[in-house]
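Quarterly update from the structural biology core.
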Amino acid sequence: MQVSKMPDLAFIYFFTQTFQPFLDPKFEMEPMDLEREIVKDKSKWIREFCVFLCQNLDPKTKSKISLENVDYHLKRLMATRHRALGIQRNPLVYEDDNDPLMDLEIEDRIWILYLFCNFVLEENDLIYKAMEKKRELMRLEPIGIDDKGNAYFHVGESVRVYRQSEDWEPVSSSIDELKELASQFKDEGGELLIKQHLLQVVQIYHERELEKQKKEEEENERQLKIQKRLERAKLWQSEILTTRRTREKKSYQIPDEDEFSGEEFAIQKQEDSESEDSDRTVGEELDERPKRRRD
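Predicted structure, tokenized:
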């Protein structure tokens, strides 16, 4: 049996979506996430979901439940409940129990998660109080029934829609499949209700995608501005360093013979010699002035 056709798996998704406002901490999921992760040998995502279930089932020890010790808490919480279910042995306790849930068969994994969702549903105070005020939270109503008597179910903003006739099966897993499904219903009777609901989901999906695209564009624009500022800062820093180096060269650079060659060096040497002769003549005249006064 395909995982996506298991009604217990659909219940797990419906549970998290319906009671999300009353759960703490919360856990966002799509039904496809659950279907993809539950069949793996090891899954951090499933372990995180188990932490979420245990923390909501036992709020008093919530801060002590983590990814590292969730296996222990799964066994502990099941140990006080399995006999009430008519199960003689804790299904999470056996010899090789490094990862007790994921070592089970896939059907048993889903069953354990289904049981824990029911435990939370029955024992969580916030959910209990919410259901006292709104009894309809306990009922999962179909969005409509087609001309063949098939019931259709949809929860949250997911593109996943389930159909229940003799069997329980998913009939859409993408936005394109959802549009195709909506086009198959008539514009009258119960099928009109299904069609209107599905088209509303499509509209919400597109609005959500436009909002997501807008946020991505705003983030890209913000990153571009930051990049331009960094480039301007680097250019400014480079200009400062270049200016400093130029000033240092002008202040301390002494001409060397290597900088001149041939005729240019001869001219420069002659100019330096004439300058030295001129300085010497001036010095001699200054030395002779006192002598003339004495004469």
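Residues 291-295 have pLDDT under 50 and may be disordered.
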